[in-house]
Design goal:
By secondary structure, the protein is an alpha/beta fold. It contains 19 helices and 16 strands. This is TonB-dependent receptor.
Length: about 475
């Protein structure tokens, strides 16, 4: 629905042919197309719609690895961000050096590049690619850039190539026509396609035209619009491509609202990491720890509050944690997503209350196999769940994975998952952290009760006070103190 709403705001929807022709007929646009893998699918559109001589300075496809290395330098992989950036930088600089003095006053130069691995003959490879455009929004302007990572989902190479061509045209047209409205630009990337054919799981804006763009919001937009099931960014706000971060690494995820990050959140991760790292299948290997927020959580009060989202992102950043935004409210879907990128062990840490919800059958009524199907899919790759205890604040009693009250008909299933190491109790917790609940921290922040500061990491308290996050007011806090 959101995609349709944004598209209506754009006043008109034009097809791929019209977009390519519109670029060709714009006398300001002139540049290079450099494409590796899957054919010259993007530039083909600009050749065949007519008027390409006014747009295309050069088209190049360096298929041979040695030829590619000779032009762009060596790279660790040929389908990677590093290679794409080298292509964009080299070709754009070449255009400026050769043509700026001749036609720089009237021409906005650009370079489009992609490096792609489409379906091979045996159908055994990962079908994905990097695309980008480096461009001047206006003649003599400083450079701007957009980079995306795509996953091709069609079963045939020819269909993947067709989809790539359309996405490439959308990206080029968007850079020229919608650079001042980046949200509409993101929304336009799958015009003429759908998410059953292409997934865009990373986008990054940079340069003068996008100096006010927060790429964390653009990552959120990808998931909100359904262009990807998940997106990721680092603690410094840098957009991450999940396959490059998770590739061949063990993964530990904590799901939460992080509103704000509290001492208990970090203790939960610490405890789980200690246990997880001792597993024979994990010992000595690199573990990626990540905090995950679901779209359901962000939409819990209706529409997403962007300021609230950025506040959460900032407090997570102070803890040095990468953030994963996902549309996978069901844990088995999160597990399947992570399993795309690694064969190493995956773990999820959660509180005992969340584990109790996991065994509530009402959440699985839409699955043919009910709760059995859900757990079969969740634990099929030997996934581990680490359960942090929940303390009753009145009685002091601990609810743990060992004392959890499970329905009689599910006890054998629960016992089986415990026995095989799927569900594990965390006994290495800090007792002081058991007294911390994010909802209470939030209430104290709003009321001006300064005791909340001892319930969160020092860095989190500092950024909340400095930026007045979560309705914090220094004047109220000082009066309450």
């Amino acid at each position: 629905m959101l995609r349709s709403h944004l598209k209506n705001q754009a006043n008109e929807s034009i097809d791929t042919h019209q977009k390519a022709l519109g670029v060709n007929l714009d006398p300001r646009r002139y540049g290079t197309f450099a494409e590796i893998g899957a054919g010259q699918e993007v530039v083909r559109w600009f050749f065949r719609v007519g008027g390409g001589a006014g747009t295309i300075a050069k088209s190049i496809s360096a298929y041979d690895m040695k030829v590619s290395d000779a032009i762009y330098g060596r790279a660790s992989r040929y389908v990677c961000r590093e290679r794409l950036q080298a292509m964009l930088d080299y070709e754009h600089t070449l255009n400026l050096d050769r043509l700026r003095e001749v036609r720089g006053d009237t021409t906005a130069f650009f370079t489009f590049a992609d490096t792609v691995s489409a379906r091979n003959y045996k159908g055994t490879n990962e079908c994905h690619g990097w695309m980008g455009i480096k461009f001047q929004a206006h003649p003599r302007d400083d450079d701007s850039q957009i980079i995306i990572h795509v996953r091709m989902l069609d079963g045939e190479a020819a269909l993947q190539q067709e989809a790539l061509g359309i996405v490439g045209v959308n990206l080029i047209h968007g850079a020229f026509a919608l650079h001042h409205e980046p949200e509409l630009l993101v929304d336009s990337l799958l015009d003429g396609l759908n998410t059953s054919r292409i997934e865009i799981d990373m986008i990054e804006f940079s340069g003068i035209a996008f100096r006010h763009v927060d790429n964390r919001l653009m990552s959120l937009k990808l998931v909100e619009l359904g262009l990807s099931g998940a997106a990721m960014f680092a603690s410094n706000g840098e957009v991450l491509q999940p396959s490059e971060i998770f590739y061949r690494k063990a993964i530990l995820v904590e799901r939460g609202s992080f509103r704000p990050v509290c001492n208990v959140n970090l203790d939960m991760l610490r405890c789980a990491h200690e246990k997880f790292s001792q597993l024979p299948s994990v010992a000595g290997k690199e573990i990626v720890q990540v905090m995950e927020i679901t779209m359901n959580n962000l939409k819990s009060e209706g529409q997403i509050d962007l300021l609230d989202f950025l506040a959460r992102a900032d407090v997570m950043a102070t803890c040095g944690m990468p953030v994963l935004i996902s549309d996978y409210s069901r844990y088995f879907r999160l597990a399947a997503y992570l399993s795309r990128y690694t064969k190493e062990t995956i773990a999820i840490t959660m509180g005992a209350g969340s584990l109790m919800e996991l065994f509530d059958e009402k959440y699985y009524t839409t699955l043919e196999g009910g709760i059995l199907e859900s757990f079969g899919r969740l634990f099929k790759n030997d996934l581990k769940i680490y359960v942090y205890p929940l303390q009753n604040q009145e009685t002091g009693e601990l609810m743990t994975s060992d004392s959890l009250e499970i329905k009689p008909e599910l006890r054998q299933l629960y016992g089986y998952l415990q026995d095989r190491g799927g569900i594990n109790h965390l006994d290495n917790f800090d007792p002081e952290c058991l007294k911390v609940f994010s909802r209470e921290v939030l209430a104290k922040i709003k009321s001006g009760d300064s005791h909340w500061e001892s319930m969160v990491p020092d860095s989190v308290a500092e950024v909340i006070k400095r930026k007045n996050y979560f309705d914090y007011r220094s004047d109220v806090s000082s009066q309450a103190g």
